Amino acid sequence: MSTVRPLFSAFVAFSFLIVLPFAAAQAAEPADIANRLKDMLARRNVDLQWKNVGGDLSSMVLSGVTVGDASGTDKRADLGDVTLTDVTEDGDAYVIGNASVPGYSVKNAGITASITDFSISGLRLPSPDSTDPMDSVMLYDSTKVGEISVKRGGKQVFDMTGFHVNITLPKGDEPLKFDSGADSFTADIPDVGDPKTKAVIKALGYETVKGSLAMAGSWAPKTGVASLDTSRLTIEDAGSLDISLKINGCTPEFMRSLDAIRKKIAEAPEDRTQWMAQVNLMQQISLGGASIRFDDDSLTGKVMDYAAEQQGAKRGDVANQAKILLPFALMRLNNPELTAEITKAVSTFLDDPKNLTIVAALPNPMSIVEIAYGVKRAPFQLLQALGLQIIANQ
User: Fold this and answer.
1) For position 193, what pLDDT does the model report?
2) Considering the entire predicted model, what is its pTM?
């Protein structure tokens, strides 16, 4: 089993621990809450065990916590002690002031992966008999992770600090809003094996990259409209990639139905009827629009300079070659207007690399199932249906 699986199991298990509504029992005893938690995790194919549970609603501790696949085939992860503090009542619900795990680490095949200072505040735990659709959704105020680290043979190959998520809960018909990100990360580009590819990465100076993450968006539970306003990955001395999109149909009822189907799939993966049920359910989700924007910070110039050096030419020669070849490469689109638009935008960008944006300006929302089918069966027709637009330097 790979190193990632135990770490991922720990992340998933703790995420359920702090964000699933496990509903307090009559006396709100720690043991009752822990058993409720165990039941909820079991429904998602995660087995939770502990050596001892104690305390009260002001400070509850699960000691010696381990998690693993419910089938018992995966290696169990040791989380240590999990603490829940400052529990208050809000109507029939409880609110956990803070839930935390000091740290977790797993070693396998010379690789050590670890996290430190994992905590969530303002966790909402609704009543088990609640009929409010929102109570099936994981709600909290904020979550933080001090550091995520991966080492290979004692060498740091990945490090992320300051990861966080903040949620502003909806009032009335207002949408839920969120923002998240990571202050910084450093990553070594993995050994790709191919000597030519390795040489290119080294020549461009990207054997180790540094950057940051930022994300923000909103979700309107009543209408099911979810908007990812920005999802920005920034790499120092390279550029940034920003993705935004809008989807329809993501209601609490949809999420609850999807969770139920996935549970049945986990219980009987051979049952194709449940897979079809999941596909049919996903037809409720449609794409309303999307965009991908790249802001250059020297990456384009470095790539063209490298290509020019290999050809014994100049950067301008490489750009001109690309401009000439691009229309021929786009002939399969069988769309002269789109071909001309793409050629013009890319040519403008190559002459002065600032930013390049690909926009899906759909005339009407399109089911993601229909989009997936189009990608496989009719990719060029799909581009036209998506209302594809290419914009440079705006």
Assistant:
1) 66
2) 0.81
